[in-house]
Amino acid sequence: MLNRDTVSSEQLGHLGLVAATIRELGIIERIDARLELNEKKGGVVSYGRRVAAMVINGLGFMNSRLYMTPHFFQDKPVAQLLGSELDAAHLNDDSLGRCLDKIAEYGVTRLYSELAFEIAREKNLLSQRLHLDSTSFVLYGRYDTEEAAPGIAQPDYGYSKANRSDLKQVMLSLVQGGAANIPLWMEALDGNSSDKTSFQETVRRVQAFTQSIHGMPDGLCFVVDAAFYVPEQLASLNNVFWITRVPAQLNEAKVLLNKPCDALTWEPFDANYRGSVHETVLYGIPQRWVLIESQQARLRELKTFQRHLDKKSQELIKSLWHLGHQVFQCPDDAKQALKPLIKSLKYHQIHYEILPVERHTGKGRPKPGAQKMVIGYQIQACLSTCLERVGAKKETLGRFILASNQCDSSLLNNHAMLQQYKEQSCVESSFKFMKNNAFELDSFFLKTPERITALMMVMTLCLMVYNFAQAHIRQCLKEHDEALPNQLGKPVQNPTMKWIAELMNVIAVVTILTNDQKHRVVTNLKPVHQQIISYFGQYALEIYGLAAESARGTGFSCLAIEQNNYKNRLSWCET
């Protein structure tokens, strides 16, 4: 007889895909090979499986923070996901805390970089271009400011990219590259670290690390934001190519940015961009500067500039009105009152004259022929716009400068230089993903800097698994000329893993007890689910209880699914 005691269910959803990707990347085995479990002290769950559990939690999109992993797995098929006879009780706070301590003891950056570059080399994901950026994560709680061990991030106050200067923070420096944009390098930095110094230190460490990697592409080129460009420090970077944005505050940059168009030789890149190349040498470093002009950026900046110009005009008119109603003791006082206003002018001109104020000073009605006395002076002024300056400024809007020490345009042409810099957004998207409310990794509640630093490595592993899985499913769809329905039911070949998680949210594992026998069934599997699962190979088929014969071909293959009516395939979501 079926009742609440004989029937139970566990939420599986997309977590099987996450677990399959973890197995495909060999994360558990690679960590276990480096972090040895001491079974004599009662260790049951290997460190690799503990990390895998935290990654599955982090990619669960259930608003469950990583420190609540034990609670997260209470209604999940743990053994099915982690590949051994485990249950949620094994993944308790003490177990996960000891795992974070072990990671910190081994070396957070060391462990992650060894895993990432090993995986990238095996999956052929290494490339010459590496994108570097950093972000901050706020901390809640009190942390001592004692000096931390090497490689451990020290919580401290600093420039907050989250606009929470009242809280301590830690910094995360990330290097991404390759076709899947997986993070290849991560560093947890002190909360008060500066990008102007940390970027160059990170580049040196990555360069030194990659020199020992067999199969690493030659001529690594780092793409970094403007904070990297500190001319007097760039000379210390040997045998490293870089692409970065030149800070507009540099005197040399100001001259180039404000050059009129007719004084420049332009090379059109596409309908939006054009560039002007300039060779320069700063602090003994030969560089290629490319002045980029974007038409779309120019239109945006024109609107902003005109809005600021109109606002400034209104402020000046108001100030002149107030000054015009004041009476000064002498002309010099009037000029002194005008001086700060005139000094602030950039695109306006003030035409003024100082007139005496004459009045009868006696009491009562003045006698006929009585002379008026000068009692003070007033300013009579009018405001005009300096059209020449405004026109010159408008001509230079929408510009920025890219710099590289790769001066050979046959190896890196100007358009490719721009394209590489635009791909810097991949790191920014990764940080946005980490700070997303669904991911719940924008703030920490751990007690020690060691565990905070180790947890940042787990976060980066989450990003690696997410990006790899997303790139893989998109590649499968293109290779097989197939598609999946998007939120509107239209076929697409570039779904996000976040949307895949939404699609598979209804999948569950039902356990039925009959005659002392346990039957486990994966329910709510629709054709679209089977298609998605088949892309993730044998591991995923086993987790979701699908026969290996149902896959077409070998490896990561696809099931034969009709692609005619996508909206009908989404009907199960609407009922």
From TrEMBL:
UniProt superkingdom: Bacteria
Question: SUPFAM superfamilies attached here?
Answer: Ribonuclease H-like (SSF53098)
Per the UniProt record, which residue ranges are transmembrane?
A: 452-469
Q: Which GO terms describe its molecular function?
A: DNA binding; transposase activity
UniProt domain DUF4277: residue ranges: 8-116
Q: Which residues form the signal peptide?
A: none
Keyword set, alphabetical order: Membrane, Transmembrane, Transmembrane helix
Transposase IS4-like domain residues are 132-464
A GO biological process held by the record: DNA transposition
- NCBIfam families registered for this protein in UniProt: transpos_IS1634
Q: Please state what the protein is called.
A: Transposase
Organism from which the protein derives = Legionella donaldsonii
